[in-house]
Amino acid sequence: MTQPTRIRRVPARRPRLLDLFCCQGGAAKGYADAGFDVTGVDIAPQPRYPYRFVQADAIAYVREHGAAFDFIHASCPCQFYSDTQRLMGNDHPDLIAPTRAALKATGRPYVMENVRGAVPHLHHPVMLCGAMFALETYRHRYFEAGGWTLTAPPHPVHTAPVAKMGRPVPPGHYGQFVGNFSGVDLARKVMGVPWMNRDGIRECIPPAYTQHIGRAALAHLAPALEVAA
Ligand SMILES: C[S@@+](CC[C@H](N)C(=O)[O-])C[C@H]1O[C@@H](n2cnc3c(N)ncnc32)[C@H](O)[C@@H]1O
Question: Are strands 226-228 and 37-42 parallel, antiparallel or unpaired?
């Protein structure tokens, strides 16, 4: 009598992630931790970026190469959506709509991330908070998912007092780590970004957020990536 053959399904290769507007790689680290092979793109040189890096315009790059990746992350610069920058009369382009159009043209699943001021420009964004990942900072960030569904963990009530912006973080308080914040070493530890300087930290997503997104994205991608072993 022939025995039934058990077919084990394994990923054929490491899934490829394209990290647009990558800066110093906060988002990238979480995706790498989740299991992605990461390539970052930024218009400015990023010598601290820990993964493969391409200096280029993100929208031009994704239009040309985006379809070669399994999943795409895009963190458009947030200055256009920031209240402070608007009040200061600073002129920044709105990159969310053109980035979305370029992402959709690839046919790949994606997330676009931004700050609260950009929420009216994002489609059904999901909010992630540091407290969802036991980080000692709240740092709400908003994620539009395209071509798949992203869910957030339960949102714990904020109980810790928050340090005043730009002031040292007193014991027992949570830091904000934006603008010209005080306490680079503390911020590195709290957010899990030990390789970054102040410029990278003020812009970054804590890797814990994108590790959560990356794991969910891998579950979504699994049927397409697996082969019988
Ligand atoms: C908010 S930061 C990204 C932060 C990053 N996701 C992280 O978690 O560390 C935005 C980045 O977009 C870059 N940038 C601005 N315009 C760009 C463009 N047209 N193409 C590529 N990168 C651009 C900036 O140099 C900056 O590093």
Answer: unpaired
- Identify the band that residue 12 occupies on the pLDDT scale cut at 50, 70 and 90: confident
Q: Check: CB of residue 142 under 8 Å from CB of residue 119.
A: yes
pLDDT (0 to 100) of residue 83: 63
The residues facing 10 across adjacent strands are: 227
Nearest CA to ligand 1 atom 10: 77
pTM score, whole prediction? 0.92
Residue 42 has pLDDT above 70, yes or no: yes
Tokens linked to 183: 């306490």
pLDDT greater than 60 at residue 229? no
111 lines ligand 1 (CB under 6 A): no
Query: β-strands 141-146, 126-128: how paired?
Result: antiparallel
Could you give the angle at the alpha carbon of 99 between the alpha carbons of 96 and 105, nearest 5°? Answer: 140
Domains plus CATH for the chain? 15-154+204-228 (3.40.50.150)
Distance (Å) from CA 21 to ligand 1 centroid: 3
> Among all chains, which residue has been given the structure tokens 């994620």?
143
